[in-house]
Write a structure and sequence with these properties.
Layout: H1 6-18, E1 31-38, E2 45-52, E3 55-63, E4 67-71, E5 76-80, E6 88-95, E7 108-114, E8 120-130, E9 133-140, E10 146-154, E11 173-182, E12 185-190
Antiparallel strand pairs: 1-12, 2-3, 3-6, 4-5, 6-9, 7-8, 7-10, 8-9, 10-11, 11-12
Length: about 190
């Protein structure tokens, strides 16, 4: 007997119930106060998971790490070490709710405004393969302690689509997230969709 992929079915149900057609998340993120501060410089912390258009966008912070990146044509692989002041690995995972598959071939941008000190961080998140599979990431120091409003925008993927999926992901999808750093640790995140 074949078993169902429960996470994929749950994501598909959320997508159906939420409806489609909107490329951006409709509501402001809800705040979830963590029972204990979480140190994303020591372990991966889920900041939020949100439905945006026809995809789920998951946002995590984890310790900054060295990355192997290709440069030029033909590609030449070089190690990009963690830079001075880079504490966090900002990670986005765009997911197809129907299959549970990560969406590839997209340009992804990350913007975070620290509402406490007024500083803004922007970054292009690079496609990456790591322990959690395909994701998009960049190292960042963020902008110190404070309450953040973050936006992740997933551009239109450039892969071909079959006739049944020709209308999927034809507009950028944007999700908003909230998090708070105090003493360099996360004390609030976004209540993730179930």
């Amino acid at each position: 007997m074949k078993t169902a992929n429960v996470p994929a079915l749950a994501l598909a149900l959320v997508a159906i119930l939420a409806g489609s057609g909107a490329a951006a998340q409709d509501t402001e993120p809800k705040v979830k106060v963590l029972p204990a501060a979480e140190d994303a410089t020591q372990k991966t912390v889920l900041v939020g998971r949100s439905l945006a258009g026809d995809m789920v966008i998951q946002f995590e912070l984890e310790p900054a790490k060295n990355m192997w990146m290709s440069m030029g044509n033909p590609p030449m692989w070089m190690e990009r070490p963690v830079g001075s002041g880079e504490l966090f690995h900002v990670e986005a995972k765009p997911i197809d709710p129907g299959s549970g598959t990560r969406i590839s071939y997209a340009d992804i941008t990350f913007t975070a405004v620290n509402r406490t000190n007024g500083k803004t961080i922007t970054a292009a998140l690079h496609p990456m393969w790591g322990g959690s599979g395909l994701h998009y990431a960049a190292n960042s120091g963020l902008a110190g302690d404070g309450r953040y409003e973050a936006t992740i925008t997933v551009g239109v993927p450039t892969f071909a689509r079959g006739p049944k999926n020709k209308d999927l992901w034809m507009e950028p999808a944007t999700a908003k997230f909230h998090f708070k750093l105090a003493g360099g640790k996360l004390t609030e995140v976004t209540e993730p969709m179930k």
